[in-house]
Specification:
homodimer; alpha+beta; three-stranded antiparallel sheet; two-stranded antiparallel sheet
Chain lengths: 164, 164
C-alpha cells in the first residue's frame, strides 16, 4: 500500500518525482554526455556502449520528460534528415546532480585502474567549483558557461560544459 | 563496444561509478528514508509501498555497496532477532545528491495536488541551506546534525537529518 511519500511521478515529494525521471543509470549517463555537448545518437552509442533499443528508449523518455529537445538536422553531404538531442533548461539543471554524483563517486568508489580524479573546474582560473556553483578562488558564482569538466583519462584540457 | 567512459562499476568516470550504485529509483528512495532516520524493513515498506522482494534486493545492494550497515536488534517484547539498516559514512555522503534531486524536482516537476515545496533548512535559523551545505543567513557551513528536511505535506516541523 503506497504511503504518503511514495516516490511516484506526481507525488508530493520532489525527490520522489526527480527519482522517477533521474533514478536510472542510463539516463544519467546520457545526460552526462549531453553536458559536454554530445547530441547525436551515434555519439551517445559510441560513448556508452549501449544497445540501440535501450538508447532510443532513454532518449525518448528524456525528451518526454522535457530534459532533451529533439532537433532535426541534415547530415553534411546530404542524406535523410536526422535528429540531435539538445539539453533544455530542465536538462541543464540536472548539472548539480551530476556534480554531486561526481563528488560521491570520487570519494566512495574506486576505478579498476588508478586514474586522477575527475574535477569540475572554473575554466578562467582552474580551481574546483563548489556544489553551489561558486568558485572559492574567484569568490563568485560562476555561470555554467565558465564551468568545465576535467577528465584526465580522456583529455589534458578541461572540456567546457554545454552552453544553454 | 564500450567506449572509454562507459559508466560501469569500475570505469574511470566517477559519475559512471556513482550512477552504477545510485542510478536506481528505489535505491534513492530507500536512502531518502534513511536520511530521516528510517531503519527498519517494515518502515521502508510502509513508506515506499514497495514489494518485499524489491525492497530486500535494494537493501542488500546498498549494504553490498557499503552505503548501509545491517545491525541486529531484538524487538521490544522479545521475538527473533531482526535487523536495522543504518547509513554508513558513504551513505550519509549521498545527502548532496538527494538535495540536488530535491531542487531539481521542486523546479522541474509538478505534484498531482498542489503542495508547498520541500525544503532543506538550517534547524537553528530556518533558512534554506545551499547545495554546498552552507547557511547563507548564518554565513557558515552547517554540519549535517543542524540540517532538517521540511516536508509540509507530512509534518509542520522540520525533520532532523539522521545523525552520523
Amino acid at each position: 500500500m503506497p504511503g504518503p511519500t511514495r516516490g511516484d511521478a506526481a507525488g508530493p515529494c520532489p525527490i520522489g518525482r526527480a527519482a522517477d525521471v533521474l533514478g536510472d543509470r542510463w539516463s544519467l549517463l546520457v545526460l552526462r554526455g549531453a553536458s559536454v555537448g554530445t547530441t547525436r545518437f551515434d555519439e551517445f552509442r559510441a560513448e556508452l556502449g549501449i544497445a540501440d533499443n535501450v538508447l532510443a528508449d532513454r532518449l525518448r523518455r528524456l525528451v518526454g520528460h522535457g530534459l532533451l529537445s529533439k532537433v532535426p538536422y541534415r547530415p553534411a553531404g546530404g542524406g535523410r534528415t536526422r535528429h540531435e538531442y539538445r539539453l533544455t533548461p530542465a536538462g541543464h539543471d540536472v548539472f548539480p546532480v551530476l556534480h554531486a554524483l561526481m563528488n560521491w563517486g570520487n570519494t566512495h568508489t574506486t576505478a579498476r585502474e588508478p586514474v586522477p580524479a575527475m574535477r569540475l573546474v572554473h575554466s578562467a582560473c582552474g580551481h574546483d567549483l563548489g556544489l553551489d556553483g561558486r568558485c572559492p578562488h574567484c569568490a563568485r558564482a560562476v555561470p555554467r558557461t565558465e564551468a568545465a569538466w576535467l577528465r584526465p583519462w580522456r583529455a589534458d584540457r578541461p572540456e567546457p560544459v554545454a552552453a544553454d
